[in-house]
Amino acid sequence: MIGRLIGIARREGRRKPMETMTSGVISLEAGLASDSRGAKFVTRQITVLGREDWEAALMDLADLMGPPDLPWTTRRANLLVEGVRMPRAKGGVLRIGAVELEITGQTNPCHRMEEAYQGLLRSLHPEWRGGVTCRVRTAGVVKLGDAVEVLVSPKEHNMRLPG
Hints:
The protein is mainly beta. It has a single domain (2-11, 21-152), classed as M1 Pyruvate Kinase, Domain 3. The protein has helices at 51-60, 111-116, 120-124, and strands at residues 2-10, 19-21, 23-27, 31-32, 46-50, 79-82, 93-96, 99-106, 132-138, 140-143, 147-152.
């Protein structure tokens, strides 16, 4: 199954707003260029969110007016993909354009999600809806519309929220 890259975003510092882009340089040393987290955390250089997972999380929050109208950047992920089911286990490998990313874990939702919208943290947790954290295996440039492909998909691992 081949999907595509439909969003790229970075933030220059802690609590800074997300900036969307049409292309980005991804390096082995720093993840997405000018993103504040990639160079600091080798196992979390890039975060990838699936559009379908984001929409499922928002549907869980729906009321009589429908789901909340929150942009994907609320999740604070670097890349948004669609049309591909990402591996839900460490060791999975994604290819986005020429870039290869190794999944190092689930992007665990944090209190910032509750600040953005009440209930979002709990809604993102099931089935890895909050996305995946990755380390860069092969550097390169990504651009909107690039093909997204799962190269390795290990057996799934699901974590449970405490309580």
